[in-house]
């Protein structure tokens, strides 16, 4: 496995999902994209399917993916796209999805996510909703699909994190905000730190030919911002006084936002690269958590924290399974 120097690719901020895998033939490769019904997930599905991959869109509402399925069915050379129900906040749904999967899985893109729920919200299992959706559900899914990933021979797991990971390390004493006051951004940041640590902890799967890398897609206006009030949207500079959305120059289109996911999922440049963090199609350097601009916080790359989180997630998921 590649643990060498920082990976710099020929692609930058502006590259689209299709461009970063131009010329790559994914015929015969089987892919799952969670949250592929909208936003950057849909663009990830589009680029991988057009390159020939067979893509399963794992989504809470499969009927909403029908237009995308029809669109890609008309593209010559595109792989088959289908939708299958998955609710990451409900482990019985995760379990059902994994049990129904047959044969190898070449690429798992853990893309689905929610951001900044204003009130502390719990899943039926009693888990804080952002942690459950953004991390624990994806961990459970990857773990349940491990044999299929191994069967693929050289599978890749792509974990969509966020620059918000820098706002919070993982609080092992209180991951579900039972003791500390709930903060929507601390909960989002913690879940996205967990996503990066997941990719780092997955180095234990290298022996099975499975690599895992994490990424920040950049800023993209999508449904993700639906829980933000107008004041927050104005503070972010993406809404004017009249309530019109005004994306800033550093905002990306969904097709650009999906590029780093697709690069990590399918570019030959990433062969055998694992446990790393990318932004704008490049591996980025570790920075102080409070640094301006991009970069990855040291707390998200810490191998000891990654191992501890892996054990925590495995125990949490297994405790849920036993209780069923
Ligand atoms: N848009 C941005 O600026 C931005 C920035 C950084 C990171 N991200 C990350 O990118 C990813 C995709 O977000 P997006 O911007 O495309 O937003 P989006 O809201 O369009 O996409 C998120 C998808 O996740 C799905 N989802 C949510 N909860 C789910 C659940 N319980 N089970 C299954 N699916 C569920 C949604 O239905 C949706 O299709 C997220 O992980 C997000 O945190 C986005």
UniProtKB/TrEMBL annotation:
Domain of life assignment: Bacteria
InterPro entries from the UniProt entry: NAD(P)-bd_dom_sf, Sc_DH/Rdtase_CS, SDR_fam
Keywords, sorted A to Z: Oxidoreductase
Keyword Oxidoreductase attributed: yes
Pfam family, one: adh_short
Molecular function GO labels: oxidoreductase activity
PANTHER family (alphabetical): NAD(P)-BINDING ROSSMANN-FOLD SUPERFAMILY PROTEIN, RETINOL DEHYDROGENASE
Family, per entry: Belongs to the short-chain dehydrogenases/reductases (SDR) family.
Protein name in the entry: Probable oxidoreductase
Organism name: Streptomyces dysideae
Higher taxonomy: Bacteria, Bacillati, Actinomycetota, Actinomycetes, Kitasatosporales
């Amino acid at each position: 496995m590649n643990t060498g120097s920082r990976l710099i690719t020929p692609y930058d901020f502006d590259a689209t999902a299709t461009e970063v895998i131009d010329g790559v033939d994914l015929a015969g490769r089987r892919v799952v994209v969670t949250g592929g019904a909208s936003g950057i997930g849909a663009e990830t599905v589009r680029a991988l399917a057009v390159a020939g991959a067979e893509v399963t869109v794992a989504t809470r509402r499969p009927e909403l993916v029908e237009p995308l399925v029809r669109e890609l069915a008309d593209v010559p050379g595109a792989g088959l796209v289908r939708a299958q129900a998955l609710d990451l906040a409900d482990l019985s749904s995760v379990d059902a999805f994994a049990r129904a999967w047959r044969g190898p899985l070449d690429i798992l893109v853990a893309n689905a996510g929610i951001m900044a729920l204003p009130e502390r919200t719990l899943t039926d299992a009693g888990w804080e909703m952002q942690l459950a959706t953004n991390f624990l559900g994806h961990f459970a899914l990857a773990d349940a699909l491990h044999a299929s990933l191994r069967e693929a021979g050289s599978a890749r797991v792509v974990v969509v994190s966020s620059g918000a990971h820098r706002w919070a390390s993982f609080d092992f004493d209180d991951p579900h905000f039972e003791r500390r006051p709930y903060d929507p951004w601390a909960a989002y940041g913690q879940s996205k730190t967990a996503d990066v640590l997941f990719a780092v902890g997955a180095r234990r799967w290298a022996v099975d030919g499975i690599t895992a890398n994490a990424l920040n897609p950049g800023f993209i206006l999508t449904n993700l911002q639906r829980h933000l009030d107008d004041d927050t949207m104005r503070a972010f500079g993406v809404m004017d006084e009249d309530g019109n959305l005004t994306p800033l120059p550093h905002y990306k289109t969904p097709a650009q936002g999906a590029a780093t996911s697709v690069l990590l999922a399918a570019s030959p440049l990433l062969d055998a690269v694992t446990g790393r963090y990318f932004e704008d199609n490049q591996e980025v350097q570790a920075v102080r958590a409070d640094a301006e601009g991009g970069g990855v916080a040291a707390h998200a790359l810490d191998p000891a924290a990654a191992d501890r989180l892996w054990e925590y997630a495995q125990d949490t998921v297994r405790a849920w399974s036993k209780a069923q």
